[in-house]
Amino acid sequence: VTKVLELDLAQQQINLYGGGYAAYLEERETARRHAREGYEEYADKKAALEARGHMQRSWMDKGVKNARRKATDGDKLGRNARSEASEKQAAKARQTQRMIERLDTVEEPRKEWEL
Questions:
Q1: Is residue 107 domain-resident?
Q2: 114 in a domain, yes or no?
């Protein structure tokens, strides 16, 4: 046997592996490991961006509350500066959300059955 043809019905794929059966098993395991590593990297990056976005939104909410609450001194310039700072934080939160949307989606590799 010099080549092994794998028919993957679940993913509707056909994979051709060169070499014997032992080489097929090794290449298949390597491909699965790479797929798992790629998915884990994607999931970690997405989780980090979501946490960052959540933190930025909480900072934004806190900044808006502080800008309104500290408006007792009658200083219009100071109040405007504080509200602009919270608007900048809102822009950063939107930017983080766009970064999440631009991530290339990596499907989670399916788990193989053990017979």
A1: no
A2: no
Residues 6+ apart with CB under 8 A from 86: 60, 63, 64, 67
Residue 91: CB atoms within 10 A of its CB come to 11
- pLDDT tens per residue, the chain (115 residues)? 789 999 888 778 898 988 888 999 999 899 899 999 999 999 999 999 999 988 888 877 777 666 666 656 676 677 677 677 777 777 888 899 999 999 998 888 887 776 6
Q: Which amino acid is at 110?
A: R
The answer to whether residue 75 sits within a structural domain is yes
pTM above 0.90, yes or no: no
- Secondary structure class of 17 (helix, strand, coil): strand
Q: Contact 23/17 with Cβ under 8 angstroms?
A: yes
Decide if 9 contacts 31 (C-beta within 8 A): no
Q: How many angstroms separate the CA atoms of 24 and 36, rounded?
A: 18
Cβ proximity of 110 and 11 under 8 Å: yes
